[in-house]
Please model this.
Amino acid sequence: MLIKRRPAIPPSEITPAGIYARRRELLRAAGVLAAAGAGGLLSGIAAAQAQKGPAEKLPPFRKSSFSTNEKPNSFKDVSSYNNYYEFGTNKTDPAENAHALKVRPWTVVVEGDVRKPRTFGIEDLLKFPLEERIYRMRCVEAWSMVIPWVGFEFNQLARLVEPTGKAKFVEFVTALQNDTMPGVRLPILKWPYTEGLRIDEAMHPLTILSVGLYDQMLPNQNGAPVRLVVPWKYGFKSGKSIVRIRFVETQPKIAWEIAAPHEYGFYSNVNPDVDHPRWSQKTEKRLPAFFANRKTELFNGYGDQVASLYAGMDLKKFY
Ligand code: MTE
Model:
């Protein structure tokens, strides 16, 4: 999801074409391509191999009735076409560069308006009852995939910290590793990347924290070691590589909203009736298709489960 850059304007007005065309040039000028991929010398294939290392095994998981029966995209589709701007703005950059991400040790601090603030190690998170959740995921850029995530419901973690009555929203803060993330040297977004949900959205059983993909630990480019997944919202709501979760009273500002408020709102529910200024939301291409091949559904087809969260709300206003 690129944001356009006009000359001499603040990051909040960045436009995509400019950034896209000048991306490598800018990265080179900032001396950050060298930081990516072991001196920038590794090819995509070598980088992918470098990421493999001794494979850590995903704990056992069960299937879930919340999964769609649609055919999942291949592991290759899901792990090679990504948005993870900390590693570059091209769809293939995360798969090439994210092997550098340091995913151990990893902790997630849970704090704010809670009775029992707590820090979870990744080992603790892997002990939650894991389920396979095959979800349709739709990006605001009008492509979609069906992804077999493995994870657990966010509400299970939330219950352990006991949110107080003051907690109305949840903010998700993602990792900022200056030494492994070439993209954060550019003011494309406000780093660290943050996301937010209303508390009832966060506690909904469809909202999961994912630690795996197919039967493997989550690949770095997909947000290892733990990322949010909210299937009725555009893909960008699903923050990757989470390090901090805050229960808060007031609506947090999210990374895309800060960067381009005229394009991205807090709610970001999939909605064919609310067009994005640059991409129609009426149809989508289910990858690996090249052209739009299906109609986009309200709430990405999860309306039966989530529409009641928005009863009485003007979804054009609260986009
Ligand atoms: N999380 C972080 N930390 N940084 C990002 O750039 N991109 C978002 C979201 N989470 C992003 C992120 C966007 S725009 C999308 S579409 C999804 O991740 C893509 O997730 P996927 O690559 O696993 O499909």
About this structure: Residues 1, 82-86, 139, 174, 193, 222-223, 235-236, 238-241 surround MTE (CB under 6 Å). The chain has one domain: 11-310. The longest strand covers residues 143-153. Residues 16-29 form the longest helix (14 residues).
